[in-house]
Each structure stands twice: as C-alpha cells, then as structure tokens.
Amino acid sequence: MIRKLLILVAVLLAAAVGFGLSTLNTGVRRATDAYVASVVKAGKRKVSYSSTGISLLPFPVVVVRDFVVESKEEFGEEPLLRAPEVRVKPKLLPMLTGRAEIGYLELIAPVLRVARRSAGETDLGAWLAGVPEGESGRVTVPLAVTSGRVEFEQLGADDDSTDGPLRIVFEDISAQLEPTRGDGRTAFVVDGAAPGESARFQVSGSVRPTGEATKGLEVDVEYEIADFDTGAAQPMLPSVEGIFLSGPLSLAGGFNGFAGGRSTESRPAEKLLGTVKGNGYISAFGVVEPVSVDMKVSDKDGRLRLDDARFTWSGVDFTAKGWTSHTLAQNALLNIDFVGFDTDAVLAKYGYSDAMRPRSSFDGHIRMEGTLKRPLFRYEAESKGMEMDFYSSYPVKVGPMKAKGILLSISADFSASINADFLSVGPMRVDDTSFGFRYWRDKLTFNLTKVEVWDAIATVAARYEPREANANEVAGLFDDLDAGVALSNVFPNLKPKIDGRMDAIVQLGSDDHGTWAMGRIGVHEGNFPGLSFGTAVVESIASQPGLRPLRDAEIQAAFTGSMSGNATKFRTVKFDFQSREGGFDLGSVLVRTDALEFRGAGLVSGAGVIDLDGDAMPIGAYRERVFAQIPALRRIQGDDRMLHIPVSMDGALDSLRIGVAPEFVTAATLAAAGKLVSPPAVPSARKPLEFDLPVLADEYGR
User: Fold this and answer.
1) Which of 58, 190, 302, 393 has the highest Cβ tally under 10 A?
2) Euclidean distance between CA atoms 371 and 120, whole angstroms
C-alpha cells in the first residue's frame, strides 16, 4: 500500500514538475518574444535567438540558445551582447502549483561590448531604453526574477569619443544580481580582472529605476580598482600634449543618489553624489611623478562637477572646483589653486642645471577652459622673490612679484607676464618693472622691454634651449644711456673712466666652443681722460724734417683744443666687436672729433691691450689749415681729396702708444722737399665683422 502511495506521489510530482516546466518554457519564450518585439518596435535594434528548450539534468533548466543583441547602426557592426546560451533555472516549489518563478538566471560565456559615441551616448543606454516599462518604471517581464548570476567571458568597451579608436577588455567578470521584492531595488556585486598585470576591480551596491519625470536611476554603489593599467585606456583619459596618466592606477570610493536624470521644465533632476580617492602616476614631459587624489564629485544633467577636489603632485598641493562633461571632446571648466610650487625642485627633476633653475616658490590659481581633450590653462601666481644664476658674474634677482600667463597652448608650453618690485642683473637694477618670458618647443625666451636703467631706455632678451648643449643667448639693446655709470657698474676696475652717452646692441651666449660675445657700441659727446690721440698724431708727423710747420700754434691749438693731453674729447666713438680666443676682434672702428676722424680695425686682448691699425684724416677747416702750412701735403692726398694718415695704436688704454706709418712720413718728407710723389690710392675699406645685427645709425639715427 505504501509502495503504491509513493508511486502515486512520484507520478503526481512528475506531472506537476512537467506542467511547471512547460509553463516556464512558455513563459520564457513569451518573455523573450515580448522583449524582442518591444525593442524591434521601438526601432532600437535587432534581438535574436535560435531556440528555447528544456534540460532536466542535473536539474531542470530552460535554455535560450544563440542569444544576440545587435548594436544600433551608429555604434558599429559588432553585437552589443552575445551568449551561446542563457539558462533559466526555475524554483521547484512554485512549479508544483503551475507557477513559473525564476530562481537563477545564468548567461554562458557571454561577450558584452559597450560602445560610446563622441556626444557621450552609450549603446548600452540605448538598449535599456528599448525595454518595456510599466507605470512604476520597472521592467515588465511576465516572470519573477529573484536572483541571477552572469559569468562574463569578456567585456569590451569601445569609445570613439577619443582619438582612438579605443577598446578596453575586461575578463573573467562575475556579476551577481539579487532583485528585491517590493521596492524594485536590485542589489549586485560585479568583480573581475581589469587591464594590468595584477589589476582587479569590484563594484557593489544597488540600483532602482525611479520612474519619475526626470528618468533618474537611484544608485548606491561602492567601487574599488587596484593596479589598473592606464596605458590600456590612454585615449579616453584626460591628457595634454606631453602630460598624461602613467603606470598603475588605484581608486576607491562610492556614488549615491540619482544617475542619468535630466531636468525638465517643471522639475529639476536630482544629483548623483560621489567620492574618489586614489593614487597613480603622472608623466609630464618624460618625468614620472606620483599623484594622489581625494575628490567629492556630483553628476547632474550630464555634467560631472568637482565640488571639492584635492590632489598632490611633485610636492605641490592643488585644490580644484568646476565641472567637466562625460566625454573628452565636450566643454569643461575647472578652477585650480596651488600652494608652494618650488621652481628649483621641480626643474631639477628635469635635469636643468643649477644656473638655469630659478629659485622661487609660487602660490596661485589656474583656470582651465575648453575641453579635456584640448584644454587652455590660464594662471595667476605670486612669489616673494626669485633668484637665478644664468651667468655667475651677473646673478639675477627679482623682488616680490605677480605673474600671469598661459600653459600648454598652441604657441607656448608656458608663458609669463611679470610685474616685480625690482629686477637686478649683476650691478644693473630696475625698480618697479615688468617683463615676460615664454617656454615653447624646448626653448626658453625672456624679454624685458623699455626699461629705464642708467638714465636710458633698455630692452633685454634671452634664449635658453635645455635640450641643446650650451645653446644659451642674452641680448641687450640700450638707447642713450650714461656710458660712465654703465661701464663703472659693469667693469668696476676699468681705467681710465669714460663718459658720454652710449647706444649699444650686445649679444652674449654659449655654444660647443665656449662663451661668445658680439655687438655694436657707439659713445657720443664724451671723452677719454688721459688719452691725447689728436696731439699724438700731429706730434708724430711734425717731428719729421720738413713737416715741422705742423707745430704751428694755430694747428696745435686746433687739435689739442678738442683733444688735450688731459681729456680726449670726441663727438663719436663707434666700433663692432666679436669675441675671439683671449680677447675681442674690433671692426668698423670710428673715432670722430672736431678736428680728426679715425677709421680702423684691430683687437683687444684679454689683458686689455689694444692693437689698432687705421687711417686718421683731418676734417673740415683743420685739413685746410694743414695744407696752408705745408702745401706739398696736397700732393699726397688720396683720390677722394682727403689726407689719409696711416696710424697704428697699441698698448693699454691708459698708456696708448700712437705711431704714424713710416711710408707716410717718407712720402710727406719728399713732397715737402719738392720731390715728385705719386698720389696714393684711397685705402680700401677693411672687411667688417660678420654678424647680423642692426646698424646703430639705423636703430637710433645717431
């Protein structure tokens, strides 16, 4: 009797289970067909599967085979989701009453590909938009899903909002879902392997469609990612030319609130609040430095807002507020404050020499605008002072100053316009001044324009190329400065002292051959104390037999009146100079007084010894007085009807020796004795020094 009863119970159970499986199979097919029909009707995408069936062993499941969700046309040809099998495991007890309730949902080896367009839309969002909704906003599928698990073989993310195209692949993803009855909330845990040798991630929390007018999704999520390989996702990460996230990145934090909502005319969307903490590395122009972040963020109406962001890089603390879009190509605005930017310490990491590192500490503000893909940075900063030893003999000091400029633009990696209480370069000091500099394409340029110094207007420019060995250059242009004050400051041991008004164009630099210098200098309306150039020339000629009439008191007075033994007065002294080993080459030398003009060329040794050769010519009425005293000299004047006197000068400036060429004395003596002398040719112009500098007369009109 008992045996028959057991057989009857078994038959009834089998019938009930069979009926339940049949109901479940029908329910699954209806649910799948309903979903497919709703998506196709909405014009979102195609969904297909080959068949459904029932498997009894090792326990009853309904199998949906070759399940494929196609991507929308604008997101590419590769399917959004494909799975060889979707297994639906029913609850057994409800099956005995003929009800179909899913106890477990499993996708076998699925591959999910989420694509994003430049506008920020994702293919996944478009897919969910096709799911039929009820009045409460919940998905209306005629099955009750109480739990589910998906083991993803691969999850790929494509992003064409970057310079990519970019694909990031996550593997061995485990997703555990636990829908809750009553409030429509679904708890979940997702973890797996991220790009990177030992990278892992985990996201857990719950979500619930709100069904409100703003279409938000209520979210309460925590996340953690360790040792993520930023190189795999480089195109989708914020970066500027030469600056980008590098190496492993670890982040942790959470989000709660409402995601994906959009404000309406009658109701604003709720915010999604989040925290981000982590650390990684930033590569900036080849130097990799650790960075740590601690941010409070919010998301609303498609904008990610940084409500309180703090990060530390290269020993500098930054705080930021502002907003960004969800994609790199859309607009963003960030305001960043920084404290304690040590220029010496930062530039030392880039291999800059001690001489090329400004010693200063800045506090300031950076405003970033544009897009995260192509941002523009403007900044303002303050410092209590700055020091720099570009040339050891001319240390640079800047008093308290304010700077502003741009960073990482198309025309400058870094530029600055500075107002300072004072600027000193060696002995030169300028109070209350403005200057600027720019660093671009491995070249630093400096400009100081229209500065009052030494009773004159000066312009100074400098160039430094750190990637090129010894590629340094400084240039200065001075208009009508006080020569005595300037030379006394620059060359305090110079003797004799020189006065007058000076115009100058000077360049200093260094290259593979060492330090070099060149320039043009003109001094006007001054004197050389202790140098009697004119008197020495006349005395040298008049000491010869037949030329003694040049000692005539009127002629002597004419020359010595403008160039006495105590002070050699001059209208103009001009010369070009170019450094050479142990001294300077001199070219285009011009000395002009009321009575005499000298043109020549030569050199100055490193010890200050001068060696010049040229032609001295009495000018104006003085030449006529010479001819009146010794008429024979007219016969040795040049083709240009000027009396050219070959003169050589050598020795130190304060003990200069001046001599007249013997051939001139011989010709003059013969002419004075009534001998026939062939007129000499006009001396050919000496070859000027070769460099490209403006002519002083063109620059100043003097």
Assistant:
1) 190
2) 14
511 phi and psi, to 5 degrees? Answer: -145, -165
Strand, helix or coil for residue 341: strand
Length of the chain equals 702
Q: How far is residue 95's CA from residue 595's CA, in Å, rounded to a whole number?
A: 128
φ, ψ dihedrals at 397, nearest 5° = -130, 140
Angle at alpha carbon of residue 388, lines to 385 and 390, rounded to 5°: 155
Q: Can you tell me the distance from the alpha carbon of 659 to that of 649, in angstroms, rounded to the nearest whole number?
A: 7
Sequence-distant (≥ 6) Cβ neighbours of residue 165 within 8 angstroms? 158, 159
Please give the pLDDT value at position 337: 94
Classify 258 as helix, strand or coil.
strand
Give the pairing type, strands 287-300 and 386-391.
unpaired
User: Tokens standing for 297?
Assistant: 């963020």
Q: Evaluate whether 291 touches 311 at the Cβ level (below 8 Å).
A: yes
- Give tens-digit pLDDT for 96-146: 555 555 556 666 767 776 665 655 566 655 444 444 443 333 333 333 344
pLDDT of residue 408: 76
Render pLDDT for 195-211 as a digit per residue (tens, 0 to 9): 878 888 899 988 887 76
Sorted by sequence, the CB contacts under 8 Å of residue 602 that are 6+ apart come out as 585, 586, 589, 610, 611, 612, 613, 614, 649
Give the range with max mean pLDDT: 182-196, 218-232, 625-639.
218-232
Tell me which DSSP letter residue 501 carries. Answer: E
The most confident of the ranges 251-255, 320-324, 596-600 is: 251-255
* Structure tokens belonging to residue 26: 């029908």
State the pTM of this model: 0.61
Sort 97 into a burial class: Cβ within 10 Å, 0-12 / 13-18 / 19+: exposed
Tally the C-alpha atoms within 13 A of residue 598's C-alpha that lie toward its C-beta: 26
* Alpha-carbon gap, residue 373 to 471, rounded angstroms: 33
DSSP assignments along 517-567, one per residue: EEEEEEEEEEEEET--HHHHHHHHHHTSTT-GGGG-HHHHHHHHHHB-SSE
